[in-house]
Amino acid sequence: MTTPPQHPPTGRTARRLPRPSELRPLLRMARPDPDPVRRRLARAHTVGDLREIARRRTPRAVFDYTDGAAEAELSLRRARDAFAALEFRPSVLRDVSHIDTSTTMLGGPSAYPFAFAPTGFTRMMHHEGEAAVARVAGRIGVPHTLSTMGTISPADLAAAAPDTRRWFQLYLWRDRAASEEVVRRAQEAGNEAIMLTVDTPVGGARLRDAYNGLTIPPALTARTLVDMARHPHWWLNVLTTDPLEFAALTSWEGTVAELINTMFDPALNLDDLAWLRSTWNGQLVVKGVQTAQDARRVVDAGADAVVVSNHGGRQLDRAPVPLETLPSVVAEVGGEAEVLLDTGIMSGADIVAGVALGASGCLVGRAYLYALMAGGERGVEHLTTILTAEIRRTMALLGVSSVKDLTPDHVRLG
Questions:
Q1: With contact defined as beta carbons under 8 Å apart, do 152 and 135 qualify?
Q2: DSSP string covering 353-408, please?
Q3: Are 410 and 88 a contacting pair, CB within 8 Å?
Q4: pTM over 0.85
Q5: What is the pLDDT of residue 194?
Q6: Which of 3, 24, 199, 306 is most buried by a 10 A CB count?
Q7: Is residue 213 a contact partner of residue 61, using CB atoms and an 8 Å limit?
Q8: Which InterPro entries match (predicted)?
Q9: Among 221, 225, 213, CA closest to 61
Q10: Which residues are designated catalytic?
Q11: For 109-255, where are the alpha helices, taking DSSP H only?
Q12: Of 95, 120, 139, nearest in space to 377 by CA
């Protein structure tokens, strides 16, 4: 007599023990990576991930200098909120089998529609500093901007990254002869463009720096001595590498606000822009434009390009949101001058949105500083892998195969 097959009660799934041959493909035990930098970067899939790594690895005062903004930090928060609130409008059934991310910025080629923004005191964040960032820029084919407050001279940066398109950001000092010397050095070092920053007549109230007692360079106080125990590698690198050398001054001992209020010229006006136009033969960019009316004024005074920026929210709190201001600036001067976008950019999708709304490219600042703090030059390299993948993916999902085909129809501001 044959025994009938046994079936589980209704609603229950039959179970069995898996065979070893079935388990073998599932067991993928990777060998631990002995390289600590590679290990921590492997966990970073977004700029936000790099920021969190940077926060853990860097002294609080240094991280806060990078991460913070002015007063209640409303300008920075609103800039990022504007990107978060925008809506992409994709077009389907488009051939996106090949994505062309190349474009032109300030009269030259760029493999992607972004450049690395000028940042001050960069070697304070990581001892490899601007040279590491500029080398990465050269390898992926985007421009790099050295700040007047950078921690390497224009000539030394040119030697470290000879194949990189280099721009120089300028603050005009009260001492015009000193400013003229800075411009001369930038030109001799092969910089293609001068980017004049115009939104710093006085220093913004960066309260995190005030609460942390940050000085440049960081002073050895009771608080910093305690911090040494928490971040020994950072302090070891600072104390065993060359002292901070600046792009445009020999040294400084004090706070950032004191430096701005002592050396920057609050009397800067359109006559000074005209003077710079007569002194500089390359591309002239004005950074810190926040209204269409001012864009018109500086272009009429000789600027080849403007950067719509509120200084990363680090100057005037409650300033206009650059992304929201961008369309009006493009409408006013876009046919006569290039328009770049800065402030709040934390992803490749943000870059795509800025270009769709009329910018020829975007400036990436804080994002690469987080990456630098997280892993030095390799951290910045990892950041570019994240950003370029996000740019390509966003373009493909929008149904756009080339940067030149991005239009305002692809974006709706929230």
A1: no
A2: HHHHTT-SEEEE-HHHHHHHHHHHHHHHHHHHHHHHHHHHHHHHHHT--BGGG--G
A3: yes
A4: yes
A5: 98
A6: 306
A7: yes
A8: Aldolase_TIM, Alpha-hydoxy_acid_DH_FMN, FMN-dep_DH, FMN_HAD, FMN_hydac_DH_AS
A9: 213
A10: 311
A11: 122-125, 129-140, 154-160, 176-188, 207-212, 222-230, 232-240
A12: 139
